[in-house]
Amino acid sequence: MYPDLSTLSHHAPRARESGTGPAEPLTEIVGRVGRSVVAVHGRRRMPSSGVIWRHGVVATAAHTIRREDGIEVTLTDGSRVAALLAGLDLGTDLAVLRLDGVDLEPVESGDARSLKPGHMALAVARADEFGVSADFGVVGSTGGPWRTWRGGQLDAFVRLDGGLRPGFSGAALADMRGQVMGICTSALMRGAGMVIPGMTVERVTDELLAKGRVSRGYLGVGTQQVSLPDAWVNKLNLPFNSGLLINSLAPGSPAEQAGVLIGDVLIELDGRPCRDMDGVHAALGSASIGEQLQITLIRGGERHACSVTVGERPQRNSCR
User: Fold this and answer.
1) N or C end of the chain: which has fewer CB within 10 A?
2) Is 210 helix (H, G, I), strand (E, B) or coil?
3) What percentage of the chain has pLDDT greater than the value 90?
4) DSSP code of 74?
5) Measuring CA to CA, how many Å separate 226 from each of 14, 180, 266, 276?
6) How do residues 222-280 score in pLDDT, each as one tens digit?
7) Domains assigned to the chain
8) What secondary structure letter does DSSP report for 259?
């Protein structure tokens, strides 16, 4: 992202359009979006930003929430109020806060899938001592649905052209029409700002408000991608030459109870090839919890099969 635009005059030139519909002066976009952006005090030093996503509901970046109690939010008028942590999801790096008795207007959200590389964008943040701040840049790259390294599913891949300034995790990312495409985060890709798309924010917010967590399937294995020897590929008539070496097992985990051993090589889960962890994650959505899945392994050079009952992934406490 580019230099801070919080000091731009109201005579700033109009930005070029992205997508359809008229573009607005940058300062107008910052002012309008900024009315729905708050500062979130969930860690010791610098606050992060948060977005009024629904009436009484703030969406922010989960990695900036380091405590469960005593969270406060600075509103657009400078007042500071208590916030209740409704839940957080490390997989998508999204946290949801409830504000009692606060009725600020939610942002107007758009479809992040409409963004293309080169589209201009504004990150709108809020810090206690400076009020609203803006950072201007371009979208670096985009793509379809993307699974994060933490196992969460984003509805679109949107990478910004650089890193985020301190305090900009949790900021609103707006296009040149002033529609908020999603929430900014620095925790999902090293050295680059990412956008949690609005569709993902909606879906995860529903689940966090309903039950305080996002449920994902769990086997309890640690794995490492490995290349399979040609002799194994030919002997077992495999259509691929890589698998996942089981290098650790959580005590009492579904995989351990099913008889999986350290040193096994996982090649299929529920009939789906497991050449990398994406294959495992694809089979372990929330709908798989409690289901019995067939696992295919290579053990001692021979094909081995067993059944595993998928558990629910333990919720790691990130608020520390």
Assistant:
1) C
2) helix
3) 72
4) E
5) 53, 41, 10, 9
6) 999 999 999 999 999 999 899 999 999 999 999 999 999 999 999 999 888 888 777 78
7) 26-211 (2.40.10.120), 217-312 (2.30.42.10)
8) T
